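User: Structure please.
Assistant: Input sequence and predicted structure:
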Amino acid sequence: MNAPTGHNSSFTWRSILWGRQLLQKGLVWKIGTGVNVPLSAPKLIPNIQRPILLHPLDQSQAFISSFINHDSTWNVHKLQYFFPSHQVEHILKIPIDPTSTDSLIWGFHSSGIITVKYAYHLACSLTSVDVPSSSNPNPYLHWWKILWSLPVPPKIKHFIWRAFHHILPCAFNLFLKRSLPHPNCSICGHNTESVTHALIGCSRAKSIWKSSRFKQFYLAYHRSDIKDFLIQALHNISKQDFPIFITFICAAQCKHQDDNLHSEATRIPPASQQQLPPSLSPETPSLFVDAAIDHQNGITGTGFIFKHGFQTVLASHYHQLPGAVSPIFAEGQALLQSLKWCIDSQFSPQIVFSDCLNLVSKVNGAWQDNSALSGLVSRIRLLFSNFPGASLQFLPRQFNMDAHVLAREALGSREVS
């Protein structure tokens, strides 16, 4: 990671160093105990280049561990004393995984795992990474001359320029900018809606291309990256049809965005179509769990209710935690706290209900990766071993409102537990 470029280095070596530069841009810290992470470490706080200390701090204390409580939560009062409020807000969004050592993970995917695909999309979206060049400083010079001279509206040329450089507002690029919680395509469910996927690979794009006059070209080159797709079109589509081809891509993307918005709007089914809660015996010991987040104050509220069946409340509790992490992590924290509460109170639930389907699927499956969420899920599974025969089930929010109200009340609690 510290090897120099050297004098008159080869194209291969410069390419390797470019890959290192890209890797450094994609790595972030996963916080365990924090003892190995100095405050001067790069990429420590999301969206913050370098932390600013409001007061002097002894060098022996200049580590993240100095701001973590014994129960692996953030020490909010200490953070507020040493850091500006806007930095504290970002720090409190960082999850802590006490089961893991401090480590660098890939920050541009929720799994923390780097793949060639995600690294490639990151490279295409960044303009600050200097791509190593061969002897030809601009191999696309002819392509750009043709594009800018086409008899099409300027907005279409600009659209193609952005597509060529992979900087259209697709789900993956919005995910990189933290404007979306995931990079998935909401139309076909593909796990990455890159520019190439939106324009070529999506099922909606396929149906449009196959019904157009460019069907044969599409079938021949649909596995290409969008950049290569456009270059091949320049050489394989007639001069008369090329302006139509360019305009067609822009129109197809507009159709894709319209369908995307429609999919987002209809993603949550109406109440009449939602899954009803499973039938329970009136005597079945049941635990209902939910979480709520207050990003402004940097806290998470958790609420849990122990019942017989759906109606008879035996006990309830709410708990406030420092930190305002992602919704699924907050739901996981609520589930973990509720199981600890049951152990301390000697409750033995047979069914545990959460309205976070994604969390339920992860806990019940064999899922694991490099993320802090994976460590939290492992701790939840371990606590479930204290309740032999108990199951974790999904319950739609409308049937979990009592726990939801408790979680909201926890946000108003004056003291952080």
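Residues 150-259 form one domain.
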